[in-house]
Amino acid sequence: MSMQRIVGVMLLFFLSEGTLFYWLLPDSMVGRIVPHFTLAFVLFAALYRGRHTALILGIAFGMLQDLAFYGRIIGVHSFTMGLVGYLTGFLLERRRSTLMMALFMICVSTLVYDTIVYFVYRVFRLTDQTFEWAVSHHIVPSVFLQILFSLAIYVPARRWFENSVSKTNTEDDEE
Amino acid sequence: MFVLMIVFILFVAVMGFSIGDRKKLTWPENFSLDSTAFVQEWIYRPAGYVSGLFKDLANLHAIYKENEELRKVAAAYARDSIKYNFMDAENKRLQEKLHFTERQKQLYNYEYKIAQVIAVNNDPYSETIRINLGSKDGIKPNMVVVTDKGLVGLVNRVDPFFSSVMPITKLSETSPDTKAIAATVLGKETESFGIVDNFHTETGKLTMSRISEHDPLAKGDTIITSGLGNVFPRGVVIGTVDSSQVGDFGLTYTATITPAADFDHLTEVFVVVQMSDMGESGQ
Questions:
Q1: CA of B44: which chain A residue's CA is closest?
Q2: Which one of B6, B8, B11, B41 makes the best mutation probe of the A interface by having the most chain A beta carbons within 10 Å?
Q3: Which family does it belong to (chain A) (predicted)?
Q4: Strand, coil or helix: B212
Q5: Lower CB density within 10 Å: C or N end of chain A?
Q6: d(CA A67, CA B253)
């Protein structure tokens, strides 16, 4: 699958986050289970394609999230998604991760992502909740959703990203 | 390493710049806001209808009861509307006699513009609600957004065809980008005053502070916006008083308020537009 197709699929998931998925959640879970569908794709890109792809995808889709829902601040998700994607790729892009390894990395990276997002909001004084509260209120519940979602898309996502490498292998080697 | 530093500084600059009031957005912002909203609109509404259908089926019994109550309200409304007509005519006559200007007459005349919700941000620190009215429809920042039950939020970003609403669950005394709403008690409008400026996420309650010692505010009272200051319209229901206690420094009182409106799974909201505002924006 080419990169354009993957971006298309990611766009669809991005659009469903604030609309379709929002309606699937019961009232009590709104704001507690936060979908990170695009982040999951960015992390798969980091694991099976390379850190630079993950960085670019992360910055682009983070920026999309920031701009499409511009309410308080621009740049939080862009910065964090790019950073987390790059770091994950930096650690693991050379190895071919197994299913367990991939899920574990996605779990850890999502936690890191949510932590950084929390502290950015905290630094700009846009939230006055404590970190412990944020962890128990939405960070941990969201990780469960993220694991389930990654498990569901693991097979297709891995195939797509690995196939996209083999076609453009020569370009990647220069980096 | 150097590149990383520059990127980091750049991001911090963008973040700092994007907080707070901005009258106009740049074209890339407008473009991405409008184009994504356009697509989201086509997903959110059908999903909402389907989900609403299931909820309605479950609520059939409740609707019967609601109907009974609505009949009683309708009877009361008929009586009140006669009284209102007399008072309105009297008020108009007095305004003419006192030579009110056109702007003063229109000050408390509001139009409720219906808007469809098209998407909701899942980010728990900035739960922006996107609605399908924009600057082309005369929407401006700081306009109040309500449902039939009460105050939902304030418009904080406006692009040509859509706008973003910050729910009042994001009100905070310490944040640099939130507002404080002047409020009073329904039925005691002249004696009561306080400022709604904080929402406790943990308890789900609003705080109304700076209430005077001699204030007649009591448990169970309905809190409405007072319209003093003319930034927000008056008479919008905020919630009911839960409890009232002595505030910081012991000089004023602080009341805890249960918000009247639901914030989850909204489909339609109203934007309150001041008629005197509309005149200016038409030019």
A1: A19
A2: B11
A3: Belongs to the MreD family.
A4: coil
A5: C
A6: 40
User: What distance in Å separates residue A17's CA from the closest CA in chain B?
Assistant: 8
* Number of helices (H), then strands (E), in chain B: 5, 12
What six digits make up the tokens of B164?
A: 């973003």
Residue A166 domain-assigned?
no
Residue at A88 is within a domain: yes
**Domain-embedded: residue A48:** yes
| Residues B245, B248: Cα–Cα separation, whole Å | 10
Query: Residue B146: what are its φ and ψ, rounded to 5°?
Result: -130, 160
Measure CB to CB from residue A74 to each of B18, B130, B174 and give the nearest one. B18
Burial class of residue B19 in the structure, from the number of CB atoms within 10 Å of its CB (0-12 exposed, 13-18 middle, 19+ buried): middle
Cβ–Cβ under 8 Å, residues B163 and B155? yes
Q: Touching check for A136 and chain B: CB below 8 Å?
A: no
Q: How far is A132 from chain B (nearest CA, A)?
A: 12
Show residues of chain B in contact with A31, CB under 8 Å: 122, 124, 127
- Give the domain extent around A57: 36-159
C-beta separation of A93 from A31 below 8 A = no
Residue-wise pLDDT tens for chain A (175 aa)?
Answer: 688 889 999 999 999 988 888 888 888 888 889 999 999 999 999 998 888 999 999 999 999 999 888 888 888 999 999 999 999 998 887 777 788 989 999 999 999 999 999 999 999 888 888 899 999 989 999 999 999 999 999 999 988 888 876 555 544 443 3
Residue of chain A nearest B131, judged by CA positions? A69
Contact (CB, 8 A) for B237 and B150: yes
Q: Could you give the C-alpha distances from B116 to A66, B160, B259, B268, in angstroms and in order?
A: 21, 15, 21, 5
Q: In total, how many domains does chain A have?
A: 1
User: Does any domain span residue A1?
Assistant: no
Q: Which tokens sit at A45?
A: 């890109």
pLDDT digits (tens, 9 = 90+) for B210-234: 898 888 888 999 999 998 877 888 8
Q: Within a 10 A sphere around the Cβ of B205, how many other Cβ atoms?
A: 17
Q: How would you label B115-134 residue by residue, b for 16+ Cβ within 10 Å and e otherwise?
A: bbbbbbbbbbbbbbbbbbbb
- Residue B240 — φ and ψ, nearest 5°? -115, 150
